Amino acid sequence: VNLVQSGGGFVKSGGSLTLSCAASGFTLSDDYMAWIRQAPGRGLEWIASLPTLADAMYADSVKGRFTISRDSAKNSLFLHMTSLTAEDTAVYFCARDPIAVSRSLFYFDYWGQGTLVTVSS
Amino acid sequence: QSVLTQPPSVSGAPGQTITISCTGSSSNIGAGHDVHWYQQLPGTAPKLLIRENTNRPSGVPDRFSGSKSGSSASLAISGLQADDESDYYCQSYDIRLRTYVFGTGTRVTV
Q1: CA distance A14 to chain B (A)
Q2: Which residues of A fall within a CB distance of 8 Å from B1?
Q3: Angle at B48 between CA B32 and CA A31, to 5 degrees
Q4: Collapsing DSSP states into helix, strand and coil, what is residue A93?
Q5: Fewer Cβ within 10 Å of end Cβ, chain A: N or C?
Q6: Cα–Cα nearest to A64, from A72, A56, A53
Q7: In this structure, how many other beta carbons lie within 10 angstroms of the beta carbon of residue A71?
Q8: What are the CB-based long-range contacts (under 8 Å, 24+) for A66-70?
Q9: What is the pLDDT of residues A52-79, one digit of tens each?
Q10: What is the DSSP letter of A95?
């Protein structure tokens, strides 16, 4: 199992950016997938999850601005971020949330390497 | 922002045993949701260390052990080694917030 992230970089406040996470070794659509971020010098913050069959879930801090999605053909996960502010500056990780009997196990067993998003004003 | 509270730092000498606490509430750990632990070495992605309160994923040394009681959980590291120096995070799910929640993080110094 491997998750390889791409995207990220510098963006101006109010701008948009899309992060990608390519999965290998498993079928991404068979599990829940999530994005978690870590602001510089801070702790981990869950921001979005994409269940296998239900609607996406978002933290209040990003709801209405970020969209999590997947492309099954590419076995890839995406995070489309809009209306970015300095508070969104962080390293963003994609992660797998394994399921059992079609339900989330509520933990993250494999993580991408992380990608830095810097929002400048 | 974090709803799970951990001590900012814990230190110990090589070979000693240390314990990291994770205190939650009746809407997360106390509601019966499992606690999971991650190790994050500087500049790297977190690594799952303990899942579902007490279970070690394959490859994690048995020096690492987890426990849960009431609205709290603990991670113990025995036979402390230099390469255990890292940040450690607990994680659960909060039924009131309906979000995954992480602890504030603990830096272990050996």
Answers
A1: 23
A2: 45
A3: 75
A4: strand
A5: C
A6: A56
A7: 13
A8: A66/A35, A68/A33, A68/A34, A68/A35, A70/A28, A70/A29, A70/A33
A9: 888 899 999 999 999 999 999 999 999 9
A10: E
